[in-house]
Design brief:
Blueprint: E1 2-3, E2 8-9, H1 18-22, E3 33-35, E4 49-51, H2 53-64, H3 69-93, H4 99-121, H5 127-138, H6 140-143, H7 158-163, H8 165-172, H9 180-196, H10 203-210, H11 214-218, E5 226-228
Parallel strand pairs: 3-4, 3-5
Antiparallel strand pairs: 1-2, 1-5
Helix pairs in contact: 2-3, 3-4, 4-5
Organism: Trichonephila clavata
Protein name: Transposase IS66 family protein
Domain Transposase IS66 central: 11-182
Length: 231
């Protein structure tokens, strides 16, 4: 699922690999994308990729429920950092705080997050949690790219997740498709459903996607992020 604030596009493929992104004309490597930590998204440069915090908090929740007391405590700290970050973002969007205050506080949360993850990664008796912490630390820069433009870069890719929900439900309750022709038909049906769903969706942008003309969308000069979800 490729989604932005102006349009959505779903593409059915046989795999979730990086080739899907490489072969898609909707994936400009210079675009800002919001994704989870799935390896296929390494196709994008770190500076252009924002890691979804809704996925990160799930990782932190698992750490907070660890059998290891030290991991459990540090996991709770990480979860609390995420909760505070979401609260700050909400306050920013409601104009309750300004960008300066948001950025200053978020930078402090970044230091705390890095410290907690490093502490977990150094625990020899918690091999699994240590591995998770080390993997998250590899994405540390991408976790905080929203600091470059707090008002326009979202913390999560929930937009794409919501857009793809109808398809996920359909796939669980059907025999799916048996041909490329069926895939193409299903893509159009689901896209039409999403177009008629949010009434604020601009139909000309959907038309651009259907006619494989992403350049027309970007040429509008609207600054937006691309939300990605591979399932």
């Amino acid at each position: 699922m490729f989604a932005s604030n102006t349009a959505s596009f779903i593409k059915l493929t046989e795999s979730r690999g990086m080739k899907v992104l490489q072969n898609s004309k909707f994936c400009n490597r210079n675009s800002l994308v919001v994704t989870d930590r799935y390896a296929a998204y390494n196709y994008f440069a770190d500076k252009n990729r924002q890691i979804c915090w809704a996925h990160l908090i799930r990782d932190f929740e698992r750490l907070a429920h660890s059998w290891n007391i030290e991991v459990k405590v540090l996991g709770c700290y990480l979860r609390n950092v995420t909760i505070e970050l979401f609260a700050l973002k909400k306050a920013l969007l409601k104009n309750e705080i300004d960008v300066f205050r948001f950025t200053r506080r978020a930078r402090k949360l970044r230091k705390r997050t890095r410290y907690y993850l490093k502490e977990i990664s150094r625990l020899p008796e918690a091999i699994g949690a240590s591995r998770v912490a080390k993997n998250i630390l590899k994405s540390e820069r991408m976790m905080w790219n929203f600091l470059d433009d707090p008002e326009n870069i979202p913390l999560t890719n929930n937009h794409a997740e919501q857009q793809i929900r109808h398809y996920v439900v359909y796939r669980k309750n059907s025999y799916f498709t048996q041909s490329q022709r069926g895939n193409t038909f299903l893509e159009r049906v689901i896209l039409n459903m999403e177009t008629k769903g949010p009434q604020s969706f601009p139909k000309p942008s959907i038309y651009c996607f259907l006619n494989h003309s992403p350049e027309r969308i970007h040429s509008k000069g609207v600054k937006s992020s691309l939300f990605l979800a591979l399932i």
